[in-house]
Each structure stands twice: as C-alpha cells, then as structure tokens.
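Dear support,

We are seeing what looks like truncated structure output for some complexes. This example has four components. We would appreciate it if you could run it in full and send us the complete token output so we can diff it against ours.
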Amino acid sequence: MLREDVTDAIRGAVFEELAAVGFARMSIEGIARRAGVGKTAVYRRWKSKLHLVLDLVAAVAAQGMPAPATGSLYGDVRAVLELAAYALRHPVASQVIPDLLVEAARNPEISEAIKAALLDQQQGVAAVVVRAAVARGELPEGSDPDRALDLIVGPLYWRLVVVRGDLPKGYLDDLAASAVRALKA
Amino acid sequence: MLREDVTDAIRGAVFEELAAVGFARMSIEGIARRAGVGKTAVYRRWKSKLHLVLDLVAAVAAQGMPAPATGSLYGDVRAVLELAAYALRHPVASQVIPDLLVEAARNPEISEAIKAALLDQQQGVAAVVVRAAVARGELPEGSDPDRALDLIVGPLYWRLVVVRGDLPKGYLDDLAASAVRALKA
DNA sequence: GTACGTCGCAACGCAACCGTTTCGTCGTTA
DNA sequence: TAACGACGAAACGGTTGCGTTGCGACGTAC
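Here is the complete output from our reference environment:
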C-alpha cells in the first residue's frame, strides 16, 4: 500500500517546482529532492513528469468552478472578476497557469487537460451568466458567451499576467462596468 | 572580420529554435545545428543563450511600432487591433511572444527587454491614440491610456494566445466597437 | 514471528549540453 | 605569396537528468 503522506508530499512538490522553474525545466530528481523522498517513490506512482502534471491539473478540474448568481449582469461579472483576480494574484498560480498555457501550445495532452480544467470551466460560467442576463432582458437574444468571456477576463489577464502590473483600487469595478457596457451591443 | 551571413544564419536559427522548443529548452548546440554552423561561431559572437535572445528582442524594439492616426478613436483602435492580430496570428511570433513573457516572470533581464520591445511600445501607441481622442473630444480629460490598452488588446490576446481560438469575421470590428464603447465612461 | 511491500539512499549506464580547445580549411588582406 | 582570422568539425572533462536496480531499514498483515 502506497503511503498517503508521501503521495501528498510529491504532489505539493510538483506544484512548487512548477511555480519555481516551470514545466520545461522541471525534473523528477528535483521534485523528489524538494519532497524529501526517493526517486523510487515518484516512479512507483507516475510514469513521467507529464503524468505528474496531468494528474495535478485533473485534480483542479475535478473541483469545478462555481457560477455566480447575484441577480444582475454587473454583479455576476464583478463576481467572476473577483474570483479570477484572486487566482491570478496568487503567487504560485500566477506562475503555474501561464507556464502551462505556453506548454499547452506544444503539447496536446497538456492542452487538453488545461482546456478541461480552466477554459471549459470558464466558458461554462460565462454561458450561465449570459443566459441569466438574457432571461432578465439585460442582454439581447443570441449574445455570444465566448465573446463575453473575452471582454471580461481578457483585460484582467492582460494586466495581471502579461504586463504584470498592479491592480488599482476600483479597477475591477470599472472593468466590470466596462464589460457590461461593451456587451450591451 | 565576422562573416555577416553566418551572423544572420544564427539569428534566424535562434528565432526558429525559440518558436520550436521555447527559451527554457533551447540550447546553443541546437542553435548551431539548426544554423548549420559550428558552436565556435556562436560563442565568438554571444556569451550565452540569454545574450542571444536579448539581442534578438532589442532588434525588435529598435524597429519601433507605428501609431495610427486615422482621425477617429474607432479607426485608431481598429488599426491597433489589426496590427496586434497580425502579429499574434503569425505562427512563429505567436509561440515566441508568450514564451518570452513567461520567461520574463523569472528573469529580470528578459523582463526588461520585453518591456522595452513590446509593452512600452504599446503603451506609447495607446497614449498617442488616447491623447488624440481627448483632443477631439471623443474621450473625457484624464482618460487612462493603460486602462485603454487593457480593454483593447486584452480580449484579443486572451482569445488568440490563451484560448487559442479562431478569429471570426467581424470580430475585430466588434471588439473595436466594444472597446470604444467601454472607454467612453 | 515471518513474509511482504514501501521506504530512502546510492549507484548504475546512458544521453544531452555545457564552455573550451585543437585542428585543418578557406577567403581576404597586404 | 605570405600572414591572418574566421570557419566547421571534433574532441575534451564536467554537469545534470534520465529510468533502472540493489540495498538494508521499517512497518504492517497474517
């Protein structure tokens, strides 16, 4: 029987190593070193570093992403932004997410995993939010949820991850208002 | 005297190698192999792969980025989006840019170079566009060019680079219109 | 109390790349 | 034509990680 505490230590080490050096530079030796276990313990559980990461991403995907239901489009958008900003400002996540996204451009398996864990989830949330807004009459029939998602999280991702700028007070409020205004075509 | 054609071959190989495997996996041996030159020729010109890439990025920075002047805010925004979409759809650039952006999060020298080559350029363009729009009375005094840039290129970058989705006909038009609408607070 | 499986540790042979050096070839310059 | 310097190729010793194997220690199940 594989020891649970060892498994957890490895999982944690993968996460930290991924944030510290990125997928490309990550090594199984480094993971074992960081986790304080032997390489044997790692190879007994996973075949390669790819499987390690796919397992990690799948765990994130499994936990799901909650869709807001505040009763207004602005409220929903603002809630989505709050959640996204929280994740993208997390020091570990803000390193791991863009790193894996770049890796996904070269590796179909990572691409598929990331899509299921993040993009599909977000598109699902956007679909719920848009559908509710349409039902309330806040948005016209046939509004495209994907385009809505672009307008909502695109600017935030750009600022936090690409430019790596700060998040001024009131920025999320303004952005939510801008997105709502942009959506009501 | 160093041979110009060899220098060019190396520069080209760096670009291709960067797109193919990314900065982290890139090796000087691989570059020399791809360029069809000896390692000696590379080391005679640059100290390390970091210097190779910094040199490449500086070359991009030096060529500058043109600011549009179409006479309307919508026209200017649309022109910026056209240029950005062209770059982000380029198969090599669309691999290299996000890769270096991720690398920049871990390497201050790359960060500085990328900032000068891309971000500062874009912020300069945004500043010109916003200033012109304010002068025309299309935007209120004190509009923030950085926020404008977030709203203009954020959604496009998200769609093309993060989601790696397609670009439907009319998307740029809609996005430009949305951005203009969002900016007029 | 014995047998089994996981544990950490260390070593294995192999591969890639590091940065340097040596060599013989070739083109340019004087 | 002689000297010089860059060229490609190959080899150097050193480092890192690969995936595998053998080891003795430990803990648990029977």
